[in-house]
Amino acid sequence: MGLGSAAAVGMLATVDPNEPGHYPTCPLLAGTGLFCPGCGALRTVHALAHGDVLTAVERNPLAVALLPLVVLAWVLWGLRLAGLTRWSPTEVPGRWVWGLLGVVLVYWVARNVPGWTWLSPL
């Protein structure tokens, strides 16, 4: 998983998603014109790979905000596989999962409100 993730980040660091034709368009955006919560995430990873945190936040602030949680979960998963901890994803309180879902849904709606261009990934 680590090598696959590193390869994906390496690809995004070298093949710029800001240039048309390198990656497919988001199906929701192409079909409806609406931004999904993940729209701009490829450009966010590209910017982070180049150390440009401000551009990353401009493209997808939620992805940048949730990145530390993703890394923490990934590290804990690796420690569990290595037998160094007994933590399990089933131990995450349900209210945290529902809270995260609520944040994602509010973000999804907010970035599609007309005039709120500060949340659009463009």
Your description of this structure?
This protein is mainly alpha-helical and 122 residues long. It contains 6 helices and no strands. The chain has one domain (2-119). The radius of gyration is 16 Å and the shape is globular. The protein starts with a helix and ends in a 12-residue tail after the last helix. Keywords: Membrane, Transmembrane, Transmembrane helix.
Could you give a short description of this structure?
This is DUF2752 domain-containing protein. By secondary structure, the protein is an all-alpha fold.
The helix-strand sequence is: HHHHHH
Low-pLDDT stretches are none
Overall spatial form: globular
> What do the pLDDT scores average to?
90
Into how many domains do the coordinates divide?
Answer: 1
Rg estimate, integer Å: 16 Å
Between the first and last Cα atoms, what is the distance in angstroms?
A: 30 Å
- Major sheet attributes: none
Instruction: Indicate the proportion of strand residues.
Output: under 5%
Number of DSSP E strands: 0
The helix count comes to 6
Helix/sheet category: mainly alpha
- State the helicity in percent bands: 55-70%
Organism: Aeromicrobium halocynthiae
Transmembrane segments: 62-82, 94-110
Pfam family, one: DUF2752
Protein name: DUF2752 domain-containing protein
